[in-house]
Amino acid sequence: MRADARRNRQRILRAAREVFAEHGIDAPMAGVARRAGVGVATLYRRFPTRDDLVRAAFAHQMHACARVLHEAVADPDPWRGFQRLVETVCELQSAERGFPEAFVAAFPDSAREHAKMREKASQELIRLIRRAQAAGALRPDFHPSDLAVVLLAHSGLVTALPGDRAASRRLVAYLLEAFRAEPARGTLPDPSSLPLDGLPLVAGPRPSPA
What we know:
HTH-type_TetR-like_transc_reg, Tet_transcr_reg_TetR-rel_C_sf, DNA-binding, transcription, transcription regulation
């Protein structure tokens, strides 16, 4: 690939991550091209479909998730593996706001190789969950789809408080404690620095003194 073609590709991928973070992965492809400063024809020449673009834009994050999932399944302590998986995916989500939707989204079955990767990942996740439940560490009613719910909940926090890693770590710690078969009641990470008057339930007009 020529140097100018590589630069165009990198600009497109960077723009795609920004646009998907702001408007979701269904954002118009023309908006991505405009943000990247390239023509729509150039974008489609590099990425014929939206799914091609989404996969390429978040390839690093997807591979990181696949690696940590593999390591979690191989960990002799299934709870430690499960905990590290949840923490890592949420860290990736904090670093790249468009990632969770791409992670949760179902891609077309016509992308055969990607479909096989998703199937393998699903099997490994189910195996990890069952091992943690069999060990008495993970509550028996936890379902694999609950991980998607975790990401969607965490996504709301990341959107509202971008860059607040303390709030992210604390929420993840709360969720992990809720998933334990027997909560350890350990010490939570430090709280967020968000002031209470920034919360919606206390942010309305103050009552006049009597």
